[in-house]
Amino acid sequence: MRGASAPPPPALRRPTPAPAPAAPRRPDPADLAMVVAASDSLVHAQFRPLREQRPAGPRPDPAAVTLLAQLDRVDDNLRGLRHSLRPR
After folding, report:
1. Whole-angstrom Cα distance, residue 7 to residue 85?
2. Which stretches are tagged as biased composition: Pro residues (predicted)?
């Protein structure tokens, strides 16, 4: 007769439940403002020459047009982030 205190074989043990995920931390607004400012200055410094040479003429380079459209979206997103980080 087996003893009643013997543990079950490993295959029959219930898995240990995973710990509950930690609540997401809210980022510090000062850190976010610093990242937005750095991104903004990078976009403007690195791509100013390209913006100044906007593709013109009857057949502008499609790659340049696409890149400028993406830069405009980045600017819009940065502007939105700056607006949302302003103290109320």
Report:
1. 57
2. 1-24
- Point out the residues of the chain with pLDDT beneath 50: none
pTM for the predicted model, two decimal places: 0.53
Report how far residue 51's alpha carbon sits from residue 7's, in angstroms, rounded to the nearest whole number: 72
At a CB cut-off of 8 Å and minimum separation 6, what does 78 contact? Answer: 36, 39, 40, 43
Query: What CA–CA distance (Å, rounded) separates 6 from 16?
Result: 19
| Cα–Cα dist 45/66, whole Å | 19
pLDDT (tens digit per residue) in 23-32: 788 878 888 8
Nearest to 82 by CA among 52, 25, 43: 43
